Amino acid sequence: MSAVASTMNNDAILKVEHLSMRFGGLMAINDLSFEVRRGEITALIGPNGAGKTTVFNCITGFYKPTMGMISMQQKGGKSFYLERMADFEVTRDAKVARTFQNIRLFSGLTLLENLLVAQHNALMKASGYTVLGLLGFKTYKDASKEAVEKARYWLEKASLIDRADDPAGDLPYGAQRRLEIARAMCTGPELLCLDEPAAGLNPRESQELNKLLRSIRADNGTSLLLIEHDMSVVMEISDHVVVLEYGQKISDGDPAHVKNDPRVIAAYLGVDDDEVETVRHEVEEGAN
Ligand SMILES: Nc1ncnc2c1ncn2[C@@H]1O[C@H](COP(=O)(O)OP(=O)(O)OP(=O)(O)O)[C@@H](O)[C@H]1O
């Protein structure tokens, strides 16, 4: 484990500093620095191939970065260098959970069972890692009761409680996405990383997702970092937006700032660097 002395602002839960990731001859992330502030929703956006998922994979221990530091500071003051940790340690010790672009539920298990499996670590600990523990320990009985209560709480919040005993595979797509988020929340994260949570959702499902994400921020105090292509979701729910292009940061600020940043507009329109000034004039004229 990589617990370290705290050096960060109280304000930042996650600090990415000079992060680089090379795949052979390709520099997928190049000297990237940004912060995720505690209690906020931060969106990481950028055109296809900009490096967003690679950043997530570095934060959550799936990739070891070529260079750079990723520090996470928990509420209690304990800090971790995530780039030194294995993926399961990032979830278990640093309390960073994630979802993936493609849904990864146990489709044959019920919704409730999916949320109980997510709490396997806590239950095993309470069993004392013995079968006798499973049969008799009070701590195990208490922990399993608590696990069911937590699962029910998250099913309620995700508006899925009515389907608790149905197989996860029977849910409509948007509901499966919310179940994944509920499952990640059952691990008790302080930072939740979501990879394209709104992908493939219809407008109603998208609204339900926004509601869930806002309530996670407001009621549970969890900080969120999300990759998202759907600009209506990004603009509606984010407090802070970081924009990547070719593995580098091209803009960083609140949604209104980023939306009007000519470099961002140019990146999304596929405009060359020497045409950014033209886009800047057009944006300024449009605003007047
Ligand atoms: N494991 C890998 N091996 C080699 N190249 C990779 C690997 N993972 C990502 N890349 C490359 O790194 C670059 C960034 O990819 P990444 O998936 O992080 O972008 P992205 O912004 O998430 O894209 P999208 O929006 O399409 O999901 C791409 O050129 C991609 O081909």
SSE topology sketch:
Blueprint: E1 3-4, E2 12-23, E3 26-37, E4 41-45, H1 52-59, E5 67-73, E6 79-81, H2 87-92, E7 96-99, H3 111-117, H4 120-126, H5 131-136, H6 138-157, H7 173-185, E8 191-195, H8 203-220, E9 223-227, H9 231-237, E10 240-245, E11 248-253, H10 255-259, H11 262-269, H12 276-287
Parallel strand pairs: 4-9, 4-10, 7-8, 8-9
Antiparallel strand pairs: 1-6, 2-3, 2-5, 5-6, 10-11
The site of adenosine-5'-triphosphate (ATP) has 11 residues, from strand 3 and helix 1.
Name of the CATH superfamily of the largest domain? P-loop containing nucleotide triphosphate hydrolases
CATH topology of the largest domain: Rossmann fold
CATH architecture of the largest domain: 3-Layer(aba) Sandwich
List ligands, each type once.
adenosine-5'-triphosphate
Oligomer: single chain
Q: Note the overall shape.
A: globular
Helix content: 40-55%
User: Cα distance, first to last residue?
Assistant: 54 Å
| Uncertain residue segments | 1-9
How many distinct helices? 12
Beta-strand proportion: 15-25%
Overall domain count: 2
Mean pLDDT: 86
CATH class of the largest domain: Alpha Beta
Report Rg. Answer: 20 Å
